[in-house]
Amino acid sequence: xxxxxxxxxxxxxxxxxxxxxxxxxxxxxxxxxxxxxxxxxxxxxxxxxxxxxxxxxxxxxxxxxxxxxxxxxxxxxxxxxxxxxxxxxxxxxxxxxxxxxxxxxxxxxxxxxxxxxxxxxxxxxxxxxxxxxxxxxxxxxxxxxxxxxxxxxxxxxxxxxxxxxxxxxxxxxxxxxxxxxxxxxxxxxxxxxxxxxxxxxxxxxxxxxxxxxxxxxxxxxxxxxxxxxxxxxxxxxxxxxxxxxxxxxxxxxxxxxxxxxxxxxxxxxxxxxxxxxxxxxxxxxxxxxxxxxxxxxxxxxxxxxxxxxxxxxxxxxxxxxxxxxxxxxxxxxxxxxxxxxxxxxxxxxxxxxxxxxxxxxxxxxxxxxxxxxxxxxxxxxxxxxxxxxxxxxxxxxxxxxxxxxxxxxxxxxxxxxxxxxxxxxxxxxxxxxxxxxxxxxxxxxxxxxxxxxxxxxxxxxxxxxxxxxxxxxxxxxxxxxxxxxxxxxxxxxxxxxxxxxxxxxxxxxxxxxxxxxxxxxxxxxxxxxxxxxxxxxxxxxxxxxxxxxxxxxxxxxxxxxxxxxxxxxxxxxxxxxxxxxxxxxxxxxxxxxxxxxxxxxxxxxxxxxxxxxxxxxxxxxxxxxxxxxxxxxxxxxxxxxxxxxxxxxxxxxxxxxxxxxxxxxxxxxxxxxxxxxxxxxxxxxxxxxxxxxxxxxxxxxxxxxxxxxxxxxxxxxxxxxxxxxxxxxxxxxxxxxxxxxxxxxxxxxxxxxxxxxxxxxxxxxxxxxxxxxxxxxxxxxxxxxxxxxxxxxxxxxxxxxxxxxxxxxxxxxxxxxxxxxxxxxxxxxxxxxxxxxxxxxxxxxxxxxxxxxxxxxxxxxxxxxxxxxxxxxxxxxxxxxxxxxxxxxxxxxxxxxxxxxxxxxxxxxxxxxxxxxxxxxxxxxxxxxxxxxxxxxxxxxxxxxxxxxxxxxxxxxxxxxxxxxxxxxxxxxxxxxxxxxxxxxxxxxxxxxxxxxxxxxxxxxxxxxxxxxxxxxxxxxxxxxxxxxxxxxxxxxxxxxxxxxxxxxxxxxxxxxxxxxxxxxxxxxxxxxxxxxxxxxxxxxxxxxxxxxxxxxxxxxxxxxxxxxxxxxxxxxxxxxxxxxxxxxxxxxxxxxxxxxxxxxxxxxxxxxxxxxxxxxxxxxxxxxxxxxxxxxxxxxxxxxxxxxxxxxxxxxxxxxxxxxxxxxxxxxxxxxxxxxxxxxxxxxxxxxxxxxxxxxxxxxxxxxxxxxxxxxxxxxxxxxxxxxxxxxxxxxxxx
Length: 1280
Known about the structure:
The protein is mainly α. It contains 58 helices and 15 strands.
């Protein structure tokens, strides 16, 4: 019909089609219930034709409902389809069950979840019609199930309709269904029981009646079943026929018991009412039928009993009083192995009875309840000696299977825990396991295997029970069995049992392990491991169990060692050799091909525990000598995609190289060492690791790990919010958890899910601020000129020591996270800082990167020593072991970069550290020829120093000297006179302020430069010996001709008098801002005071110890220490504290070189486009066949360094490409859409977490470039 067509229809057409469908459902007669007239045969033919038409209509109805449920059902309901279907159900012949089923299914579709249609169906008598069908003996299970389901729809959430069902003989219908014995449909029985439970709740007085009727049914069926069983025993020759008569009775008992169980579960008062009618005796009598009836019936009865007595001690006592214990214990006596479900049901009843007895303080009764089960366990041991187990007679089989069934029941009881296990332990009932193991060799193989299996399973996850059995010497029995096993299966069960004993992590587990060690279990396990290549019994499963058990045992020993427990005893030589042989065997095992991932993983962890145990050092050496290092490196390199396996191998490798006497670290590939570093840093101590696969304790995984830390960062003040947030977390938290960064702006959260991309962006942006010299934590170094070194005087910008501690700790944490996550920061650290972070000692050559002046000066002296010793000796005259390092380095850095340091503690960030509008940086300098005032000169000097223009600086300093001279002394004659006085002062050993021109410069001649607010003091040495000078003990500059006696007070007074005479000749103008006192005590005194403050001794009395040929190297060593270590020692200590919180010191020192550390943190700031392209994957097109990809790479290649870095940050969150780059995760370019004008309006988008770029199909290269520029300008990093 048209109802089934997909073409759009008008409302009128839909109504006509629905009306035709309803008419078809009504049939050809005057109504659905009208019967055709005629003779019997004709009537039957017409009825069959009518049923065929109706079934076709029902099929169309269901299809129409499935296509458009709401509209179709509403339309059909308005035309009376509900009433038609109910009439059809009433008139449906019982012989056409499929027809009835189709009508019920259609009714279910129509009435489901519609209050209006349900009421319509009720009014048409649907409940009466369905109950009538349910009560028919010939109704099929399918019709019963669907009928009950429709009734459930009808009475759901309606007490009124439930009452109608009850009044329409609903209870009898439900009982009839249960009596039918539909054992294959547990869902049907559950729904029937649910309906009965609802009726019982609505009519409490009826509840007793329903339970009584069910009990009567059960009792009646019990009698019939008992009679049938007796008949079977009498008619032994015709068992099949009798069994066929017994099966329906068993099925009826099963369904009635299922109904009882569903009805009574969790309802104590119903259960009590049922037990008051004698139901306990009936249930026990059903159990007493034992193996004469089907196991399904007994299992169902056991579960029904469990539902009745759970959490009801009084009823448990009733069951015990009717001798349930004896009936239940007899169930395990059988000549066949019982199903596991049967055993589980049996154990559950026993467990709840014992729990109830213990709750009623009837412990003795509980023991007597369990005693028959223990007797059955020893059935195999009670066989008369002459009979043995030679035959396969029924008695032998019964004894063997009784023991096996009872062992499994006992194990199930132990798994349920509770008081039942305690009673068994108190009565020493589990000692039967030790008795059976003692005679292990005298039993048949199948029984021996089952005993070993149950011993392991009974103690699995049961430390208390494991300790109880270990005290009975089971560990010694297992050690003996593992040595004497003759089959692979027996060895497998024995090693598995031993692993279950020693697997526990608590103190009880430690005690069990001690007993196992004393019993020689460790030696037995290592023996198995050592012979795995020659013994055919040692298969994969045996190795898995052996490695697991050994791992647990050595793990416990390593834990005792790590805790410095008084129980720890240093291993004997024999024990150490045993551990070493185990390590070699494990290496041999790992070298085998195709041993499987699980065994590989477990073997590695056993190796880790051995190298962390009592013989740690010897085991590590054994692994290294047995080529273990190369093996582990190979495992890491070949399994990079398997994170758990790689982490395990990396941790093992770290133990090897940390204990190794040979330095093989540098020979290991960097990617392997980085993986080792990450896993070692994130791993908890081995003895505290959780349990992993196949019974072996695990360590930790590398992926962010145990959880995540949510770090909320204010995007407007990244540094300040970061330092406040990071103070809340410890190093362990930062290492062992993933970081989830959430940017906020005020109270607004930025959208984005951090899967790594936001973290990279945060680290990049934070490092840009922290490592900006304007932040006052660092200053610039040299080679490259934008490298950074720790500021010798971070307090220069007003930062307190407390603030310094916070900021340097945060800086160290950022560096550590950069290494841990392999996220480069694009920050070049000077080599000396990298060495200090790794506990190294800087060398003289490292000075080149922090102070160009010092390095140039002393390098020339070193060269002079090699080329001209005499000149070298002359150059060293009057130099002492003093240095002016901090001020010089600060001046050198700040003069070059013209920075305005601002303390970050004052809430500064990049936007707030720029110079004020009135600063020289914001004023345009004049050319030297136009400078006429000190103000103009200051601006020019500022810009010259910022540009590092040395020639211009020299010209400006000459102008500065001229501007500072009074006008009255600017004539040449006066200048000549001043030069003569300076020369006289030099010859007489007097103190002078050297003219700038007399010291040719810091790069060419040794000079100490100190910046002061008023003037520059430059002390230097030129090539002429008579012009050389040194700093005397008072910090004043003396000529080289002065002797020791010239330092006397008389000579100093004479020098001072000469300088006073010199100063009187220089008549100062009124605009020089020098007071009368300053005139009487000229600038030399102020310079002397400053020099006293700035100079420091390199050793005690350093100002009195002159440098000579013999101690020059010593001086360079002390100078290097002073410049690179001592000056920044407090700051580096704070920095290392933060760094080592994330990357522990011993791990970083063992695995990285200073150069590698610097490269990891800096990365490739040039952003090599060729490298980027090599590690790029494409989706939707490549560079070879797609012009958009080609345009993209052309655009990237055309960018400058800074712009390329911005693109990289936008696409990946990195400011530079790391040392390992994209090798672990490739960059992906995916073309989206098709080439069109609409695509030109789309922006490119990226997922920084996955390095994934979605590139629209732009029509022109210009369009691509403009959209990329817009995207990078509008967003700081990709959307992840």
